[in-house]
Amino acid sequence: MNRGLFRGRGLQIYTWLVIAWLVVPIAVMILFGFNDTKGRFNTVWQGFTFKWYGRLFEIDALTQALINSLVIAVLTMVIAGALGSLIGLALGRYRFRGSGSLNLVMFAAISCAEIVMGASLLSFFVTLAVPLGFWTIVISHVMFSISFVAVTVRARVMTLDSSLEEAARDLGAGPWATFRLVTLPMIFPGVLAGSMLAFALSIDDFVITNFNAGGTVTFPLWIWGVTRVGIPPQVNVMGTIIFVVGLLIAVSNIVVSRRRRNA
C-alpha cells in the first residue's frame, strides 16, 4: 500500500515537473514581452509596459521575416494537407503494390534527423541548379511535413465505417459525390489535424530552412541572426501572439469536437 502511494506521488511530482519544464519558457517569453527594457538585451526585468505591443511592427526586417514564415506555413499547410490527405486515404483504404515501400518512406521521413533532411534537399536543389529562396523553403517544408499529414489521415480512414459509402453508392451517388458528401466529411477531422500539424512544423522550423533558405529570411532565422546583438522585445510579443492564436485554435477544436460527440 505504501509503495503504491509512493509511486502515485512520484508520478504526480514527475508530471508536474514535465509540465513546468514545458510551461516556464513560454511564461518567460510572455512576461518579457511586457518588459520595459532600456538596452539591446531583453534579459533583465526593468519594469512593466504595454508599449512593445504598440510598436510591434517597428522593425521592418522582423516584420518581413514573420510574414515570410506565415505565408510559407500557410502554403505548406494547403499543399501538404491536400497531398498528404490523398496519400493517407489511399494507404488507409486500399492495398496496392508499393504500399509497404511508401509506408517505409513516410516513417523514414518522420524519424530521420532534420540535418539529414536539410542536407539532402540542399544537395537535390544544387544538383538541379535550382536557386535557393522562398520556393525552395516551401518545397522543403512540404517534403518533411507531408508524411505527418498522411499518417494522421490514414489513422482516421482506418476507423471509418465503409457501409456508409456503400449506402451512398446504392442510393445512386457516383464516386465523386460519395467522396464529397460522405467520405470527406468523415475524414475531415484528420485532414484538419494533419494540416494544422504541417502549419506548426513549418512556422518554427530552423534546421531544414537554414539549409535551403538562400536569401530568404524567416522568423526563426531572423531571431538566430540577432542573438549576438540582442533580441528585441517585439520577438517576445510576436511569439506570444503566435502561441495565443495556436492555443485558441486548439481550444476551439476541442469544443467543436465535444459538441459533435454530444449532438
TrEMBL record:
Keywords: Cell membrane, Membrane, Transmembrane, Transmembrane helix, Transport. It is found in: Cell membrane. It is a multi-pass membrane protein. The keyword Cell membrane applies. The chain crosses the membrane at residues 12-34, 65-92, 104-126, 132-153, 181-203, 237-256. Residues 66-253 form the ABC transmembrane type-1 domain. The keyword Flavoprotein does not apply. GO terms for cellular component: plasma membrane. InterPro entries: Bact_Polyamine_Transport (IPR051789), MetI-like (IPR000515), MetI-like_sf (IPR035906). GO terms for biological process: transmembrane transport. Its main location: membrane. PROSITE patterns: ABC_TM1. Belongs to the binding-protein-dependent transport system permease family. CysTW subfamily. This is ABC transporter permease. It comes from Planotetraspora thailandica.
